[in-house]
Every structure is written in structure tokens, then in C-alpha cells.
Amino acid sequence: MVADILKNFFKKIFSNLFSQKRELKLGFYGPPNAGKTSLANRICKDFTGEEIGSVSKVPHETRTVQFKEKVEINYKGKSMTFKIVDTPGIATKIDYEDFLKYKLKRGEAKTRAKEATQGVVESIKWLDDMDVVVIVLDGTQNPYNQVNITIIGNLVARKIPVLIVANKIDLRKTNLKKIEAAFPEYDVVGISARYGKNLEEFYESIFKLAKKVK
Amino acid sequence: MVKENLGKIKGFSIQFLPYSEIRGLDSTQRIKKILGIVLSNNILLIQGRLEAEEETRLIEDTMAMIDHVKNFKGIELAVIGSDGNAGFLGKFRTKLVNAIAGGDIGAVTIVGPATIVKEIKRNPKKIELLLKK
After folding, report:
1. How far apart are CA A82 and CA A78, in angstroms?
2. Closest by alpha carbon to A91, among B58, B36, B92, B4?
3. Where are the domains of chain B?
4. Fold held by B13-131
5. What is the mean pLDDT of residues B109-126?
6. Which residues contact A78 (CB under 8 A, 6 or more apart)?
7. Whose CA is closest to A87, among A133, A49, A147, A140?
8. B2 touches A: beta carbon within 8 Å
């Protein structure tokens, strides 16, 4: 009992001392084609000058977890260092025939589907390692997708702070209010990763989120 | 476990699984049971819901099976919870009932093979099941 109290005391002291220096793992999760890599690219480009991965209209472009270390985000005089972790989109079904619509050859489509299934498993395995997570949703899609709810449920169970980003606010079809109504217990920030819209609010929310890390 | 007619609409059925059937099972057994039913071309209605970790495990196992089971393209999954937008008292009552029942028995989970179920449109209190032609 006394040992636990002392342990917690010293842990708190040390975490307060080094909290500003520690590199937090910031994960980008969500369904395929929501804009996770576009957003991660935008951040990495702004603060390191380099992108993290390629983007495409074809779903499941990101099929392995990719990350960039020591990304120092500076916002309004504040600074925090993150390890940006961009994950493959999580889905419950993957059919290689869906890729044929994007003019991929049958062999390429099959390979992409196989890699995509492995990517989903990899994404889920990385959940445990995250300090904070940004759920990136396509603002034009129905937010009541079970994948979104399942990921958030897992993060809550693991006590990992969550921020929900409604991407593609540049599109008229985007319904930010519907996303806010679907997740009333979470902060929802509408952005356009493609055009860099409303990133100030996003960075502010990220700094707030980082403070919740235990 | 896998039937030859997987992926063909002809012959699918809807099965109902009461919570009592999965209450005593561990996570591995629950997921095995669910995937076994779905792989036999059935749409499954489950009374209650899986734990958050079990839902992700279900997705992981589904992904592994796509690579290993011919004609299997994955699942469609939707859950309607019992608490919805209830207020503090409503949520407390739901939690109490769930604790007594040993699970969220007021929820409904739908799982179907993606070869049959095109989409499950979910709104807070409504589920629409769209089947493939």
C-alpha cells in the first residue's frame, strides 16, 4: 500500500517533469478512404517537410502501418513532439472485385486485397501502443458505421484519449452535425486535409488531447 | 463448417442466437460460433452484444479467414445498443440490468456474410439490411 503510494507519487513527479519532452504516439485510425494519410501527410509536411505515405482514390492504399518519428508540432508558441502513426483503414469486408472498378488488373486487385486484410489486422494490433488517437471519418459518409463504433469502443476500454475528425468539409455533402450527433461524448473537429482547412482547431484539439494522456 | 454454396443467396437463412447461448462462452468460443454460423450462409441476429475487444477480434479473425476460405469476402456487422441517448438515470438503469444479466441483453447484433449482405444501414434506432441481388 505505502509502496504503491510512493510509486504513484514518483511516477507523477517524473511524468510532470518530462511530459513536455516525451514523444507521444499519435495514431490515425478510421475506415478506408477517410483521409488518414492525407491528414498525416499534411502534418508531417508542415512540420518536417516530408510526407508519410502515398494517397489514392483506390481504397486501401495504405496497407502497412507507416510512421514518422520526432514530429515537433508548434502551435501558438506551444510545442509537442509526436510519433505520427498512420494505419491502414479498418474494414469488415474486402473483395478484390471492388478494386477492378478502379481499373486494376485482376492479379493486382487480388494482391491488394490480400495485403489489405493483413493491414487491418496490423492496425488493430497497434491499438495497444497508442498514447492518443485521431479517428478520421469521411464527413460525407454515414458515421454510424460499426467499424467506427468498434474502434472507439476499444479505445475507451484501453483508456486512450480520442479525437474525432470529420474530414472533407470542403465537400458539400459533408454533414458535420450528423457526426457530432453520432458521437456526442467526443470532440469533433471538421477539417479538409486536402486543402488544409481548419487545421488550427485541429492542432488546438490535439494539444488538449495530449494533456489527457496518463 | 464451410458449405459449398457460400456466396450464393439461394438457401440462406436468418438465425437467432439468444444471449443464453453465448453467455457461458469465452471470447474465442463466441467468435468461433458466430463465424461458423455466418460461414454457413446465415444471417445471424444475436441478442446482446460482444465486448469491444471481442468485436475487434471478430474483425481480425474475419480478415484472416478471407485469405483462407474460398469465396469468403468478409462480414457486415451492426449493433444497436440498449442505452441509446438515455439520460444519466437511464444509463445507470441499463448498466444495473446488464450487470445482473451478465451482458447487454437489450442490444441486438447483426452479422451476415458480405457475399449476401450488401450493406447494413444503421441509424441510431434503426437497422436496414440490404441484400445482394
Report:
1. 13
2. B58
3. 13-131
4. 3.30.950
5. 88
6. A207
7. A133
8. no
Angstrom distances, CA of residue A37 to CA of A51, A60, A61, B114: 9, 11, 9, 26
Best mutation target among A146, A151, A179 (most B Cβ atoms within 10 Å) is A146
CATH superfamily to which A27-211 belongs: P-loop containing nucleotide triphosphate hydrolases (3.40.50.300)
Instruction: Give every CB contact of residue B74 below 8 A, 6+ residues apart in sequence.
Output: A91, A92, A93, A94, A95, B62, B63, B66, B113, B114
Q: Tell me which residue has cell 436496414.
A: B128
Residue B104 pLDDT class (50, 70, 90 cuts): confident
Compute the count of residue pairs across chains A and B with CB atoms less than 8 Å apart: 74
ipTM: 0.85
Confidence of residue B2 (pLDDT cuts 50, 70, 90): low
* Chain A residues near any Cβ of chain B (below 8 Å): 90-95, 113-114, 117-118, 120-121, 124, 127, 142, 144-147, 149-151, 153-154, 156-157, 182, 184
| A71 burial level (CB within 10 Å; 0-12, 13-18, 19+) | buried
B9 touches chain A (CB under 8 A): no
Give the Cα separation of A136 and A40 in Å (integer): 10
Task: Compute the nearest-CA separation of B57 from chain A (Å).
Answer: 9
Nearest residue to B75 via CA among B16, B129, B11, B19: B129
Q: How many CB atoms lie within 10 A of CB A178?
A: 15
CA-closest candidate to residue B76, choices B51, B47, B50, B44:
B44
| pTM of the predicted structure, to 2 decimals | 0.86
Which one is predicted more confidently, A133 or B3?
Answer: A133
Query: How does pLDDT run across B17-73, given as a tens digit for each residue?
Result: 999 999 899 999 999 999 999 999 899 999 999 999 999 999 999 999 998 998 999
Angle (CA) B22-B23-B26 rounded to 5° is 75
